[in-house]
Write a structure and sequence with these properties.
With 232 residues, the protein is an alpha/beta fold. The chain has one domain (4-225): NAD(P)-binding Rossmann-like Domain (Rossmann fold). Helix content is 41%, strand content 17%. The protein is built from 7 helices and 7 strands, in the order βαβαβαβαβαβααβ. The chain has a 7-stranded parallel sheet with strand order 3-2-1-4-5-6-7, sandwiched between helices. The longest helix has 26 residues, at 96-121. The radius of gyration is 17 Å and the shape is globular.
Length: 232
């Protein structure tokens, strides 16, 4: 059976790095994001990568998208949920719509993708679901209320899924990124920072790859990653 990986939330940074890492390991990679133009451009430079237009908050289309992936590439064995983002405001300043938007992307989108992928994941002797998260899942700062509350809920959801699906040999893990990811926009905003201040997307992809390869006798649920100089 062909190895098939789905990456939800492919953009510059972690998403693209995940696509490249799993492609290098011989996977057929389904790249899901809203920007079809970006995905098609990336597909030209990454072997065995395939573009699928997808909005993680548009859960009405999740079923047909995963059916199309299975038909074109085969049943999914690795699901990587990298869709994320948030509103950084206090609980007083944020609107109820801000909170709902964060929940829809970080929690509802993960539920929908998992439900759609499970029939395919269950076709394999071993499968994986890995969620890319942030340190906000573990600590709610004053001006991160919508984002932190959604990320905390996402972490609890992933933990629940891990306990439910583990006996089926479906490994659910979460990677908590504590630091600033190296992106053109973060470099521009923090031009005074040295190279080793930033989290390298390729290193995040290596960590995710490692989780998917762990022996079931020693699975990791939560893995936190940060630059060596990060204060924690």
């Amino acid at each position: 059976m062909d190895k098939v990986c789905v990456v939800i939330g492919v953009g510059e940074g972690n998403g693209e790095a995940l696509v490249r890492r799993f492609s290098e390991e011989g996977y057929r990679v389904a790249m899901l994001a809203r920007s079809r133009e970006y995905l098609e451009s990336l597909a030209q430079s990454v072997a065995n990568s395939h573009a699928f237009s997808y909005d993680a908050t548009d859960t009405d289309k999740v079923g047909e998208t995963f059916k199309a992936i299975e038909k074109q590439l085969g049943p999914v064995s690795v699901l990587l949920y990298n869709a994320g983002g948030g509103v950084f405001k206090s609980a007083v300043d944020a609107s109820l719509e801000d909170f709902e938007a964060n929940w829809r992307l970080n929690v509802k989108g993960l539920v929908a993708a998992t439900q759609a992928a499970l029939p395919q994941l269950r076709q394999h002797d071993r499968a994986s679901i890995v969620v890319t998260s942030a340190s906000a899942a573990l600590r709610g700062r004053a001006n991160t209320a919508p984002f932190a509350s959604a990320k905390a809920a996402q972490r609890s959801l992933a933990q629940s899924l891990a306990r439910q699906l583990g006996p089926e040999k479906i490994h659910v893990g979460i990677v908590v990124i504590d630091g600033v990811v190296d992106l053109p926009r973060t470099r521009k905003a923090m031009s005074d920072k040295p190279d080793d201040f930033f989290v390298q997307p390729s290193a995040v992809a290596d960590a995710v790859w490692m989780l998917t390869q762990q022996d079931p006798s020693a699975w990791t649920f939560e893995l936190d990653v940060r630059p060596f100089g990060e204060s924690w």
